[in-house]
Amino acid sequence: MRYAAFASAQTTRPVRSLLREGARLPPVVFDALLAVVIFFLGVGLNGAVYQGPPGPLILHTALAVPLAWRRRAPLTVFCAVAAAAFAQWLADIQLLTDVALLVALYTVAAHSTWRRTLAAAAVVETGILLAAARWAAPQGGFLTSVVFLTAVAAAVAVTGVNTRIRRAYLASLEDRAVRLERERDQRTRLAVAEERARIAREVHDIVTHNLSVMVALADGAVFAQHSSPDRASAAMRQISGTGRQALTDMRRSLGVLRADEPDALRHPMPGIAQLESLAGRMRAAGLATRLGLEGDPAPVPAAAQLTVYRLVQEALTNTLKHAPPGTRAEVRVRCAPGAVTVEVTDEVTDDGRTARAAGPPPGRGVSGTRERVPGHGLSGLRDQTSGRGVSGTGERVPGHGIAGMRERAAAYGGTLEAGPLPGGGWRVSATLGLGSVADGAA
To answer: Which Gene3D superfamilies does this entry report, sorted A to Z (predicted)?
Structure first.
């Protein structure tokens, strides 16, 4: 019994394979083969039909041959087959090739509209009534023939409609898959563009800030190398420290991009706590900087703290590059529930005297930092060089840095304002809404 089952399975496999191969035939070839099969089904293989008059052979041909074009012109083929069937009824000839009318009905139902399907079904039902009245009524089988043939025709029509609906459903799924793929590609392109912009902002902030500080220190060291070697040596040491800090920041940024590396977790990106060291580096570069911090920064997310740090860094770097000698910068950071406010202002002094008061006196700010007065320590080196700051101009020109600052603030649903003050100087103010944090905002 096991051998018989095995032999049966081996026998059915080639049959299934042939059926699968047949299903892959081109539609034109399949329809032509179907027309040939129906023709020989009606004619018979023994050739007896050819011994009579040519009328039945012509009807066989008229019923079967149009099926070869059934998919290209469903309604036309149906009309041709129906006309041949009506001629058959008029000639009072019964043929097995009448099954071609059911195939034509199926094709109309599968490839045409509901209205055409109903019209074709009505034509078939009329033919059923005529055929039953002529060939089944004399034997008393009119009702039985009508019910049976109507059921067969209805099943064929329903199958065709189901095929059409399924084909439309599959087409909609394919179209949806194409749209989803396009949307996915679009989202990928947008994500790549956003990531590139984020990386560009990070690199701009890190490189621009540290290079500006290093250039300011180098200019001062060149000026003081003969008159004050100690101060020049201190400036060179500060340049070395700033360069190492830049390398560290770059490694941290790359570590965040490669999140699978544990180094990204051991060395987090800078935040509000590192603003004091940032202010110290700016003082060493010659920009008198005062830092004020209000509120508790602990509840502020790390990404938002990085944004605050980068905003302050960019604003101070712009002041260092573009502000005239004797400029003093003041940084205020307020951490409130649901929002963080950042304000960076610089005020111009004349010969070391403050032209306008802005905030608490030196050394009494919230941060408790000391103010480095121009002319003392390394800060005096900046005043004695070109007299124009790092950029070589006294003008403040908004560039890519301010645009990047606006993008950072907008990522948190906030705003940023940057512009000159009426009494002289520059002001940058930003508000970050912590309740609308965007992924990867920093």
So the answer is: 1.20.5.1930, Histidine kinase-like ATPase, C-terminal domain
Q: Output the six-digit token pair for 122.
A: 């009505």
With contact defined as beta carbons under 8 Å apart, do 398 and 301 qualify?
no
Instruction: Check residue 299 and give its pLDDT.
Output: 87
Residue partners of 75: CB distance under 8 A and separation at least 6? 108, 112, 116, 120
pTM above 0.70, yes or no: no
CB 213 within 8 A of CB 242: yes
Region 406-417 average pLDDT: 84
Q: Going from the N-terminus, what domains does the chain have, and what CATH number goes with each?
A: 22-140 (no CATH), 192-436 (3.30.565.10)
Q: Give percent of the chain with pLDDT exceeding 90.
A: 29
In order of 86, 97, 152, 162, 405, the CA distances from 31 in angstroms are 23, 15, 21, 20, 68
Angle at 319 between CA 316 and CA 322, to 5 degrees: 150
Q: Give the burial string for 245-280 (b: 16+ CB within 10 Å, else e).
A: bbeebeebbebbeeeeeeebeeeebbbbebbeebbe
Q: Compute the distance between CA of residue 162 and CA of residue 110 in angstroms, rounded to an integer.
A: 7
Single out the residue of 417, 419, 278, 427 nearest to residue 347, CA to CA: 427
Task: Scan for tokens 């960019």, then name that residue.
Answer: 314
